[in-house]
TrEMBL record, chain A:
Gene3D superfamilies membership: Hotdog Thioesterase
Record-linked PANTHER family: HYDROXYACYL-THIOESTER DEHYDRATASE TYPE 2, MITOCHONDRIAL, HYDROXYACYL-THIOESTER DEHYDRATASE TYPE 2, MITOCHONDRIAL-RELATED
Protein name (database record): UPF0336 protein BG846_01376
GO BP, sorted A to Z: fatty acid biosynthetic process
HAMAP family named among the record's database cross-references: UPF0336
Record bears the keyword Translocase: no
Keyword Transferase: yes
Family statement drawn from the similarity comment of this UniProt entry: Belongs to the UPF0336 family.
Molecular function GO terms recorded: (3R)-hydroxyacyl-[acyl-carrier-protein] dehydratase activity; transferase activity
Organism listed in the record: Streptomyces fradiae ATCC 10745 = DSM 40063
TrEMBL record, chain B:
One Gene Ontology term from the biological process aspect of the record: fatty acid biosynthetic process
Keywords: Transferase
Pfam families recorded: MaoC_dehydratas
A molecular function GO annotation: fatty acid synthase activity
Coiled-coil boundaries: none
Family classification: Belongs to the enoyl-CoA hydratase/isomerase family.
Stretches assigned to the MaoC-like domain: 20-112
Any one GO cellular component localisation term in the record: fatty acid synthase complex
PANTHER family on file: (3R)-HYDROXYACYL-ACP DEHYDRATASE SUBUNIT HADB, 3-HYDROXYACYL-THIOESTER DEHYDRATASE HTDX-RELATED
Protein name in UniProt: Bifunctional enoyl-CoA hydratase/phosphate acetyltransferase
Length: 151, 142
């Protein structure tokens, strides 16, 4: 069944409470991707590059925006079959890197809803702001719910 | 920000040092924990096959993170990345054979932009297949 086009443009309230970015969480993520860059683990190395504390790898923020996108995915009115969802595209545009101590909120908006060859496609934009209201990063996520196999 | 590469010294076509990133089942379990993405297609072979996959596959975001390392290692400052996007074209299949898979990433400067930025086009391959499409990063250089 084709998804409801009226969802295009719908925004969801900013996530509450803010996600607090921890140094050890950044370290854990950097270790998981095998990246030994000291700017992720050593505050002095980060300061040498002009940052107030360790920064996170570029894709770290996805964990936060994807959780926020869960509001959209789980919206029963939208009717997306999550068991068939795969990640199609991902893009980020950064105003600055995410860093330890950030308290981040995400505002998710549905940018597009399409049905192509039985696949349902949803484009979600997540705007990430810090505690002072400044923009940190925007994440665009394309999710594809694959067509169910014919019986 | 303090990228260690100078915009003035970079030309279109400049190749970045390539990277080869191994991924095993243990890597995927570790990444699942760190990222919070516990989808069983990334660690449970029985489940992966039930949903039509050939085997356990790596998280797309893991592959995206590895491809980014070629850019951030080159630029010197991960915070110099202004934009980064990919299309997930093929899964990275990770067999349980003690060796797993390897993600091979190459990149080159495709365009010089305004504001001392360059666009880097990345190619990520695993088992002879292109696993990321339209993989591009915009980086602000020194």
């Amino acid at each position: 069944m084709a998804l409801d086009q009226s969802f295009v443009g719908r925004s969801y309230p900013p996530t509450e409470p803010p996600y607090e970015v921890g140094r050890e969480k950044i370290r854990e993520f950097a270790e998981a991707i095998g990246d030994a860059n000291p700017v992720y683990t050593d505050a002095e190395a980060a300061k040498a590059l002009g940052y107030p504390d360790v920064i996170a790898p570029p894709t770290f923020v996805f964990a936060i925006t994807f959780k926020a996108a869960g509001q959209v995915i789980a919206d029963p009115q939208l009717g997306l079959d999550y068991s068939r969802v795969v990640h199609g595209d991902q893009k980020f545009a950064y105003s600055r890197p995410v860093r330890a101590g950030d308290r981040l909120t995400v505002t998710s908006t549905i940018e597009a809803v399409k049905s192509l060859a039985g696949n349902d496609i949803v484009d979600i934009r997540g705007e990430v702001h810090d505690e002072s209201g400044e923009h940190v990063v925007t994440a665009w996520t394309k999710l594809v719910a694959r067509a169910a196999e014919e019986a | 920000m303090a990228a260690k590469v100078s915009f003035d010294e970079v030309e279109v076509g400049t190749e970045l040092p390539a990277g080869a990133f191994p991924v095993t089942r243990a890597t995927l379990v570790q990444y699942a924990g760190a990222s919070g993405d516990f989808n069983p297609i990334h660690w449970n072979e029985r489940f992966a096959r039930e949903v039509g996959l050939p085997d356990v596959i790596a998280h797309g975001m893991f592959t995206m993170a590895e491809a980014a390392r070629v850019v951030t290692d080159w630029a010197g400052d991960p915070g110099a990345v202004v934009e980064y996007g990919v299309r997930f074209t093929k899964p990275v299949v990770v067999p349980d054979d003690g060796e797993g898979a390897v993600i091979h990433v190459t990149g080159k400067v495709a365009a010089k932009l305004d504001d001392r930025c360059v666009r880097v086009d990345l190619t990520a391959m695993s088992a002879g297949q292109k696993v990321l499409g339209m993989s591009r990063a915009v980086v602000r250089l020194a």
